Amino acid sequence: MANHGARRGATWTFFSVAAAVLCLSSCADRKVPKPEDGWSALSCNTSADLHAVWGEDDSHVYAVGSSGTILELGIDSCHPVNSGTSVRLNAIAGHKQVYAAGERGTILQRVKGSWQEVKGGPASQVEWTALRIMTDGSLVLAGDRLFAMWSPGTQPLMGQQAYSFRAVWITAQGHAFFPGDFGGGYCTILEGDLKSSQNLMYQSREHMHSRCVSGIWGAGGYEMLAVGRHRKHGAVKQPATKALALRFPAKATYDDIHWRDISPLVDVILRAVHGRSIDRAIAVGDLGTVLQYNGTSWQEEESGTTTNLNGVWVGVAAAFAVGDGGTVLVRSSSL
Questions:
Q1: Domain count, the chain
Q2: Range of 286's domain?
């Protein structure tokens, strides 16, 4: 299986042709000056690679990673907690209840301040790479060639495809979006209606080809941002990977949605995106890349690290980013 640390990426912006040409020579190395309330590192007493982060609120934020690592985060605090497992944890999400998921079909639930393994999950051998919780408490999981909708104690709905899934997003209307990677630079986003499907054999709306999404997030309705990488086929002189960012248009209905490319001019993989609204979002990626989206363009922020960043969560008064080697960054003012 591909290294989990190599699974994320992408971003975009709207420019006229002339402005884009000008920016190629002047914008590539431009960064927003680090403000006094910008990104700073938290000391967490771990060197584990961290793969995802999610928060109930600014004071109750959780990060998960390799070797069963779970961290409880606050604006000025970071504490490792006992997960009861040594497997790699790749995803975390919540709605009333908080769950984490990872290797060997592992699903954990936070119960009264401690983490417990949930028995009888949908699959025992799959490595879950993405997780969302529906408003009715059902878990929607995605992994290598498999995705599932499941509530503990019930029979799961399962879907199998020839893709390794990297992320999942569910709209308030119950539509699910599963970005997937077929290999060889061919990617897709499968989608369908969780509320009406008797199985999870979803279809793609449009061919993504070499546009590979590894992070997806929605602001409400069908307004969504997706980030990842542009894969180059047979590229020699050009970078093999360029950042990708896509956006569903505002006020779209499900039937007329098409992804628009708003990628920034950076040569890194973007791995995750989260925000407060469609025009207040943050994407993170390789080499410590942090990009802020204002609804029309991306601006790069100084993160203070060159470590790959794999996850981001934006709260009301703070934002958190996590990455390889136990890296945890906090931004004391959100967006």
A1: 1
A2: 4-22+31-331
